[in-house]
Automatic annotation (TrEMBL):
Species this protein is from: Actinoplanes flavus
Origin superkingdom: Bacteria
InterPro entries hit by this protein: Agl_cat_D2, CBM6-CBM35-CBM36-like_1, FA58C, Galactose-bd-like_sf, Pectin_lyas_fold, Pectin_lyase_fold/virulence
Span of domain F5/8 type C: 609-755
Keywords recorded for this protein, A-Z: Signal
Pfam families named among the record's database cross-references: CatAgl_D1 (PF22815), CatAgl_D2 (PF22816), F5_F8_type_C (PF00754)
Record keyword Iron-sulfur present: no
Protein name (database record): Discoidin domain-containing protein
CDD domains for this protein: CBM6-CBM35-CBM36_like_1
Amino acid sequence: MANRTVPLATLTAVLATAVVTAVTWQSTPAQAAGLSPFDVPGRGATVPFTEFEAEKAAHNGVSTGTDRTYGTLSSEASGREAITLDAAGEYVEFTLTKPANAVTFRYSVPDGRTASLDLRTGSTLIKTVPVTSKYAWYYGYYPFTNNPADGRPHHFYDEARTLFGTTYPAGTKIRIQVASTALSPSFTIDLADFENVPDPIGKPSGAIDVVADYGADPTGATDSTAKFQAAVNAGAASGRVVYVPPGAFTLYSHVIVDRVTLAGAGPWHTVLGGRHPTQRDQAAGIYGKYTNQGGPSQNVTVKDLAIIGDIQERVDEHQVNAFGGAMSNSVIDNVWMQHTKVGAWMDGPMDRFTIRNSRILDQTADGVNFHIGVTNSTVTNTFVRNTGDDALAMWAENTPNVGNAFTHNTIVAPILANHLVSYGGRDIVMTDNVVSESVTNGGGIHVGNRYPGVTGPTAVAGTWTLARNTLIRAGNSDYNWNFGIGALWFWPDQGAITGATINVTDTDILDSSYAAIQWIGNQTTGLNLTNVTIAGAGTFALQAQAPVTARFTGVRASGIAQNPPTYSCVGSGLAITDGGGNSGWQTAGPYCGPWPAPRYGNTTPTTPTTPPTTTPPAGNLAAGRPVTATGQADVYGPGNAVDGNASTYWESTNNAFPQSITVDLGQSRPVARIVLKLPPPAAWATRTQTLSVLGSGDGSAYSTVKSSAGYTFNPASGNTVTIPVSTNQRFLRLTFTGNTGWPAGQLSEFEVYAS
């Protein structure tokens, strides 16, 4: 039996009892729920700080709760909980366990707010630290905006750092406290990272000094880009190190590096930043040469400095990253990257590039992306937190990525998408990483044939090694779908994954928000799971939405919210070879039905109530509101009808009229018109849908607001229909009984207006 391949539906609860190596995690699901990413010995990054969660410290504030629902403060918090201080004198107090002379703390303040917080020990004021919302609070859907009218706020947190000016011993109590002079205080504290920062690194013997030799301005009052570039060029020509002494240097554009070492005095002492005052697509960054510039650059080392930018939005066309271009045989070492668009977006072809011993914080997009023909390159021993998109990613767009590795990294709370992902690629390695807190649209580790240029020779291929990784509270909701994403998930969207061997070994999937492991899209084969622990899952242990052929050996699941613990509607398409030592996920009959609510929160985004947001704008009352439907086809869930994106749509179960979609406006509201849309005219031809409008004050008893009638969606008028009404309702329901264009109800937007 240990070598027999059978459909999951025919597996019995008792499998072969072959002896396998013990898995690394032996805790219960309840213990896993409180786990910190720094509680996993031997995995993740070795960091120079000690982290303290605010909710575990002494405080007189109020907890945000532990809801994981997208759009709440707790969903983005480390450990899924933070502490809100909303009165003068309120504090969170941390007791040092090691000497420290510096702190970085993660916080949220209401949108549009600039203020400060006090650091105190006893009655002594250590520092007053500025805090601001300008690097947080994004709205709407990708590519996201800074406009509250677009709804769906997210990316609430930012981080501030400061040196104390003295070293405090272990046992010292240090408070983050609201000052007595604070106006309208409302501050949420997530955590504090205390460290003992070493003295500045001195100038290496024979080095070029950008200040003493080339006149760069260490005060940041003037633009030093040209002076940095001249110093770097001289260093490349002479083979000398280019030294950047302590200071805060303003750069209005990129410094192009090739065959040179650029060394600072340490990331707390040497800071590069700035942005062009009028040309907003130009900002501080260190770039290698692109292929069309004679690149890639070669033999570059950048070390011991910080790049802290001023990027407050995401515009994908703007090259406002800390690092970019192409660099081969090059190293980024001990660099702090913060407030840029991407920490390092590297466009190949390029070979043997390494980022190590670094920190990447508070990006508007990815932490790192190896893009287009990046080979034999690595991110290792690096700490990543609060990225706006994938934390560490590889994207083989049109040119293969080969032999790249993400190893010994710790990643916390990417606000969108995945912690670790490779879109296509051959012979990829992801090992010894620790990740926690997926927020939405992604999971802990993702393997996919997705996005432009990932097909054929660039698709997933070769041997993939995913080993000794720990995934904590990973996986979450995708607001375009009506189901959760797995902590470990596979999406062969643009073609089946059939040409690779993917080995997942000695991996711990702990306290997953939704499913632990998921497959969607086309078929996945060549998958081997060995010594994998699943301890706690908000829905299923396995979520199969596509055919998969795999071998499981020593895959043990416990604490699964749903019973049966496996979801599958693919029948014999889910075929797992029993290698022995498995438990907890097998079932004689997997579940196939409506998506259950997860254990933690739900898939419907909400607006955070603490700290207070800006006043909800007038406009579409249905935008982002909870929505349900009697049925859906494939991934075309009802949430697509209130997401503000005309290209996504809800489609009801086919050939099964009548079908309904219902939106909850939150409270009874006057309604003057309903606007219904289908996707852009270029994609959708004319059709007439027959529907009625019903309303309810309590979601139980419904009355007719508009009798059934035919409404024509015509490309000539933007595929938009307006239905005038005069009513006051909390719940509005559309019931479809016919469609001349397709045998189902279809909507890309269900908009409701009071005027």
